[in-house]
Design brief:
By secondary structure, the protein is α/β, with parallel strands linked by helices. It folds into three domains: 5-22 and 49-336, Orthogonal Bundle (ABC transporter involved in vitamin B12 uptake, BtuC), CATH 1.10.3470; 367-445 and 535-617, 3-Layer(aba) Sandwich (Rossmann fold); 458-533, no CATH class. Helix content is 53%, strand content 11%. The chain is built from 24 helices and 14 strands. The strands form four sheets. Strands 10-11-12-7-13-14 form a six-stranded mixed sheet, sandwiched between helices. Strands 6-5-8-9 form a four-stranded antiparallel sheet, covered by helices on one side. Helix 3 crosses helix 12 and helix 4 (79-95) packs antiparallel against helix 5 (101-123). The longest helix is centred in the middle third of the chain and has 27 residues, at 221-247. The termini are far apart. 48% of the residues are buried. Bound molecules: adenosine-5'-triphosphate. Adenosine-5'-triphosphate is lined by residues 379, 382, 384, 402, 404-410, 451.
Length: 617
């Protein structure tokens, strides 16, 4: 293949999927899937049935890659090794131990699940190019392990693997296996789409944005990274189990690094962030490869692996023309005539008997909610925060102002647990929070927005906002995949929709967040923070990029929140906005507090006027 592994890593890193917001099974896709399941009933030649079997097997692995790489942002070249673990487990147990092939599936899942947990615990912490390099390392290790173990038949492998049996019916023929393989594929597709349209699905989708934003929503990024790694391995293992009982023999060759790269190509060509892309990519590349293997030798008059050359060139051209893969290109045209996906629609009205997500009780107005005491933060030799001390009371709006580089964002990061303090104490609602991680702090009731917006641009406004509701639900991946979470999901989406309307973005609820103006994206972040049910809201430059009318609406919203008992600490450079809104101001310069008081007094404070070099008129 002419594209290198590095090209692929760069491509995946640089092209976020454009339309992954909608994972719902469209009618056309379902019709095609049912039609595909009916193929063995038709007089289709055996060659195409075999090809269909391999498309199904590859698509299951590529689906795992959609979850792991396309949605979770973790690139892996090593999925073929997990296919091998599933295949060898069942082949060994059914030949050497005479166990039923059906038991080989859970056995393979146990082996692959354990291996993925151990390998994932070490590798998913790696970032950048180190992660794919690590996947290459363990893919090679497992390949050579398969080929060198005596009891697995070394590189000759294991033969005489029995076929699957259904009652007295042997599923030994390719036609019978076709039905089993495509039923497994259909189940994987449905379960994965259910998972992605859910609370854990949103957590998985947030992983591609790094740690800071998801953790500020209470999402345990390490746990979810490991989860997607294990789930992708289990899907690969399922494919391996099917392969072993279709092929009836197993050897190391199909589980090497080359196949790992091909799986990734299938997912990328189909559309790495799209579940249906996995099927499309697997089908396209498998058919193309098999056709080229037939056509090229007769055209060129000699045998050889010419198809790989053509294959590589075609893939490079395709990726240059449609970098996000083929599925989004097709879906873009198809979805223009479709209505929004009900899976991500909030209920239009509150259904009867619908219990809302419970809200946290607000503290007594005037009681101290946040206390920052002698807090210091050093970055090497730079003292970014120097013995800062201030308090925020319940139902109070405090402006934290100061010239550029004064340390305001660093102060936010210390309060929200993104950065550890060097010394001093931060207390929230009476308990110490310095030393707690970001997830525990948001759990206690501190919501935040960011100076540079952290959104998932291709997800709708509603779905982005619903990420903030993560801690207000409990559904796990199994409940979500089986749709046992629907009641909770409806409640969370309802809550998110309420916040979207409350901040005035109701009309763009289903618009991809990336299509909004920057000012609206900041407002979206406020809605997301409100979903965490905060007692204290930290807003980093919320008015930046807003027009006058929008600023007035924002000020009105913040006053309404204050009336409900919420405290707001805001960093803002727009002096008119902050002077008109804040009850008190804390002014910083070079990491120190230089003034604190009522806006009218601060405007006359000489130290403040000097800090701003010419005043804050
Ligand atoms: N992670 C970091 N490593 C090293 N220095 C940092 C880090 N984060 C912030 N700083 C430094 O700390 C100081 C305070 O930065 P900070 O971003 O908190 O200021 P700010 O008041 O928010 O500025 P602005 O209004 O421009 O956003 C700056 O000198 C900045 O360069």
């Amino acid at each position: 293949m002419s594209a290198t592994k590095e090209d692929l890593v760069d491509l995946i890193a640089s092209t976020p999927p454009r339309r992954t917001a909608r994972f719902g099974p469209g009618r056309l896709q379902l019709v095609l899937l049912v039609a595909a399941l009916a193929v063995p009933l038709l007089p289709v030649p055996g060659f195409w049935i075999t090809l269909g079997n391999y498309i199904g097997l590859y698509a299951i692995v590529a689906l795992g890659l959609v979850l792991l790489t396309g949605v979770g942002g973790l690139t892996s070249f090593g999925q073929a090794a997990f296919v091998g673990l599933g295949a060898y487990s069942s082949a060994y147990l059914s030949t050497a131990a005479g166990m039923s092939p059906w038991l080989g599936l859970p056995a393979g899942w146990v082996v692959s699940g354990l291996a993925a947990t151990v390998i994932g615990a070490v590798t998913v912490r790696l970032s950048g190019h180190y992660l794919p390099l690590a996947t290459i390392a363990w893919a090679l290790s497992l390949y050579y392990l398969f080929g060198n173990l005596e009891f697995l038949g070394k590189f000759d492998g294991l033969s005489g693997v029995p076929p699957l049996q259904f009652g007295s019916q042997e599923l030994g023929s390719p036609r019978a296996m076709y039905v089993v393989i495509w039923l497994c594929l259909a189940a994987c597709l449905v379960l994965l789409m259910n998972l992605l349209n859910s609370r854990p699905g949103r957590a998985i989708r947030s992983l591609s944005k790094g740690r800071t934003m998801p953790e500020a929503m209470g999402i345990d990024t390490a746990k979810y990274k490991l989860l997607v790694f294990v789930l992708a391995a289990l899907m690969a293992s399922l494919s391996g189990w099917l392969y072993a009982h279709l092929q009836r023999s197993v050897s190391a060759t199909p589980f090497g690094l080359n196949m790992g790269i091909e799986y990734l190509f299938m997912a990328v060509v189909g559309g790495i962030g799209h579940v249906w892309g996995a099927l499309l990519g697997a089908a396209l590349l498998t058919i193309l490869k098999s056709q080229l293997q037939h056509v090229l030798p007769s055209l060129l008059g000699s045998n050889g692996n010419y198809e790989m050359l053509v294959f590589g060139v075609l893939i490079v051209v395709l990726l240059q023309r449609a970098r996000q893969g083929l599925w989004p290109w097709i879906a873009d045209r198809w979805t223009r005539v479709q209505t929004p996906d009900p899976a991500v629609m909030p209920p239009a009205a509150t259904p009867a008997g619908f219990s809302k997500v419970p809200r946290r009780a607000k503290p007594e107005p005037g009681s101290v909610i946040l206390s920052v005491d002698q807090v210091r933060k050093q970055f090497g030799g730079l003292v970014a925060i120097n013995d800062m001390k201030f308090e925020v009371h319940a139902a109070e709006i405090i402006g934290l102002i100061g010239p550029n580089g004064a340390g305001k964002s660093t102060m936010f990061n210390l309060i929200t647990g993104v950065l550890p303090v060097s010394s001093g104490e931060i207390r929230f609602a009476g308990g110490r929070i310095d030393g707690l991680d970001a997830r525990r702090i948001v759990q206690r009731g501190v919501g935040r927005t960011f100076q540079h917006v952290h959104l998932i641009p291709h997800l709708s406004v509603l779905e982005n906002v619903a990420m903030g509701a993560h801690l207000r639900g409990t559904a796990g991946p199994i409940a979500a995949a089986l749709r046992f979470d629907r009641e909770e999901e409806a409640r969370l989406l309802h809550l998110a929709a309420e916040q979207v309307r409350r901040v005035g973005l109701g009309e763009v609820m289903h618009t991809p967040a990336g299509n909004l103006a920057l000012g609206q994206q900041r407002i979206l972040e406020i809605a997301r923070a409100l979903c965490t049910d905060p007692v204290l809201l930290l807003l980093d430059e919320p008015a930046a990029g807003l027009r006058l009318q929008e600023k007035n609406a924002l000020a009105e919203l913040l006053r309404a929140l204050q009336r409900e008992g919420m405290a707001v600490l805001l960093v803002e450079h727009d002096m008119d906005f902050v002077m008109g809104l804040a009850d008190r101001l804390v002014v910083m310069e070079f990491g120190r507090k230089i003034a604190e008081g009522l806006p009218a007094d601060i405007q006359r404070d000489e130290a403040v006027l000097a800090a701003y070099l010419g005043g804050i008129e």
